[in-house]
Amino acid sequence: MKQKVTIFWFRRDLRLDDNVGLFHALHSSFPVVPIFIFDEDILESLPKSDARVSFIYDSLQKINEELQLTGSSLLIKKGKTTEVWHSLLTEYDIQNVTFNKDYEPYAIKRDLEICNLLQQNSIAFSSYKDHVIFEEKEITKSDGLPYTIYTPYKNKWLEKYHLNGTVTECDTKPLFANFAKNQFQFPELSQIGFEKSTIKVLPHNLTQIKSYKETRDFPALDSTSYLSPHLRFGTVSIRKLVNWANKTNQTFLSELIWREFFIQILFSFPNVVNHNFKSAYDGIQWRNNEEDFKRWCSGTTGYPMVDAGMRQLNETGYMHNRVRMVVASFLCKHLLINWQWGEAYFAEKLLDFELASNVGNWQWAAGTGCDAAPYFRVFNPEIQLKKFDDKGIYIRKWIPEFDLGYNEPMIDHAFARDRAIATYKAGIVK
């Protein structure tokens, strides 16, 4: 007879601690088989040494090692998700399935297909909020419509958070005995079709957050938390982080709320992935010069802060947030290249790539998104350099040839600014 089990499906929640869906799964009447699926529909477009796949693999390995201490293990599958679930139905007598919600368009479609399959086979399933503090329609205007301006969203978010006092964290460890006692073979990374990346996700570090407000704009200080990839893949709990940030630094908490704001925008307006949030900007005539784009990608524009940021991204998968704003503004405003080109390049390179934030921030920089920077705001890369890296420490780290006579800027700032404003004015539908 096949084993009667509850299946917990890991996705972007790669931890055992304070995992809502896992917590509920472990309260099941049946032993819990934890699984992770390497989805071929996602993997097929990635390079064989993708750093994010390496990080996922390493995180799963840590989970498996923890599970082995309980006499259990993690079941790893690779394939098209629906096909994998069909095979699971033949391997087990599945009584329940639990997982945490994902709010991206692809994930919503995928989960609907799997839920329909489970329903057709009379299998109970439950999904839980884990990736955010407030989801979907929990933070809305008085008329029930979603906020499209950050500040009132943030105020409502904080009001609701403080009304609850805190958000409850789940203690899963006392329930670990409820994992199924199965010893699955943990695959080699090569069996999944990938190789170890030389680019590493750094451990997160919260020690600098107490001075986050004062230091966050200075890339040379390297005072950021490195939390974003861990939030993206759920190796840290958002509840623990928000409760901690609320006691420690309100500026940092505001950044976490921005993340939820963009997730809510993507859920409510999924067309923003491929279209301007502000349709009035659809008439902008982008230049989309491929040679200019290559120079931007390679960090050879002649503007040191832009080039240092792009080189940091290409070499490490990270880029400081202040620098991200400068390089994004430069692409859209100075070079008049569609924000979608930059968004796609960041999606390929960033270790912390998250669709909602990436699209939201690129449209913010381009002026085409909700609550975006006005179109006539064109960052001056040279002034940004003087304000935030006046001693040139950051740029010299990533541009070793800087003092040997650096390239001339590929375009004059004043000319580019005037051209951008004129192009936007002509393209915006009144």
UniProtKB/TrEMBL annotation:
The keyword Flavoprotein applies. Residues 4-133 form the Photolyase/cryptochrome alpha/beta domain. One of its GO terms (molecular function) is deoxyribodipyrimidine photo-lyase activity. Its EC number is 4.1.99.3. It comes from the Bacteria. Keywords: Chromophore, FAD, Flavoprotein, Lyase. It is an enzyme of class 4 (lyase). Coiled coil: none annotated. Its cofactor is FAD; (6R)-5,10-methylene-5,6,7,8-tetrahydrofolate. SUPFAM superfamilies: Cryptochrome/photolyase FAD-binding domain, Cryptochrome/photolyase, N-terminal domain. It holds the Pfam family DNA_photolyase. The keyword Lyase applies. Belongs to the DNA photolyase family. This is Deoxyribodipyrimidine photo-lyase.
